[in-house]
Amino acid sequence: MDSKLLKELYSKYYRELYLYIYSLCRNREITEDLVQETFLKAILSLPQSHTNMRAWLYMVARNLYFNFAKREKSKVDIDQLKEMPSQEPPMIEHIIANENRRLCFEALQSLGGIKKEVLILQYFGGLSQKEIAAVLHLTPENVRVLSFRGKKELKKFMEVHGYDI
User: Fold this and answer.
1) Coil, helix or strand at residue 1
2) What is the 3-state secondary structure (H, E, C) of 14-49?
3) Same domain as 101, residue 58
4) At residue 83, does pLDDT exceed 70?
5) Is the pLDDT of residue 96 over 50?
6) Are the beta carbons of 103 and 160 closer than 8 angstroms?
7) Which residues lie below 8 Å from residue 33, measured CB to CB, with a gap of 6+?
8) Which of 7, 56, 142, 151 has the greatest count of CB atoms below 10 A from its CB?
9) CATH no. for residue 12?
């Protein structure tokens, strides 16, 4: 991969990959490391003829996160990681500055597993259902159903916590 293409990919996708990985691990340092590793893998192995580089970068970032989480699980209890204080980087504060986005972000964090990932990729990553299906190794129909169910759970969460919908 030539350096011009890598610079273009980096400037175009760094921010959204950062947000995606941060939403999974909620740790700034780990996120920075994993995003850098994602682009390192792009240097080493992404063919220039790849048709959807964005989806490929998301898939690599996701796999790197889950590999990291699997390694760390044997070192530290996952519940302890969730209890660790997180410092939200200025980038996140800027994106969720208004109250509606902040409430939506809190509600998204309440979702579990794959539904959370689908909605994050859809709304914060701006990926289509077809792209999300490729990243998560699902069918587009599964993505559609997970998105619908996730939105339904978000609405219920917001109603229970007294947020205006």
Assistant:
1) coil
2) HHHHHHHHHHHHCCHHHHHHHHHHHHHHHHHHCCCC
3) no
4) no
5) no
6) no
7) none
8) 56
9) 1.10.1740
Alpha carbon distance 133, 141 (integer Å): 9
What CATH code is carried by the domain that includes residue 104?
1.10.10.10
- Whether residue 100 sits in one domain with residue 37: no
Task: Answer yes or no: are the C-beta atoms of 61 and 31 closer than 8 Å.
Answer: no
What is the pLDDT of the chain when averaged over all its residues?
80
φ, ψ dihedrals at 60, nearest 5°: -65, -45
Regarding whether 126 and 81 lie in a shared domain, the answer is no
Same domain, residue pair 151 and 103: yes
Half-sphere exposure of 59 (CA within 13 A, CB side): 15
28-64 confidence digits (pLDDT tens): 999 999 999 998 887 777 666 667 888 888 888 998 9
Of the candidates 24, 34, 26, the residue with the CA atom closest to the CA atom of residue 85: 26
Residues 118 and 133 both lie in one domain: yes
3 state SS for 82-96? HHCCCCCCHHHHHHC
Q: Rounded to whole angstroms, how far apart are CA atoms 108 and 122? A: 12
pLDDT of residue 111: 85
Structural domain for 125, as ranges = 96-165
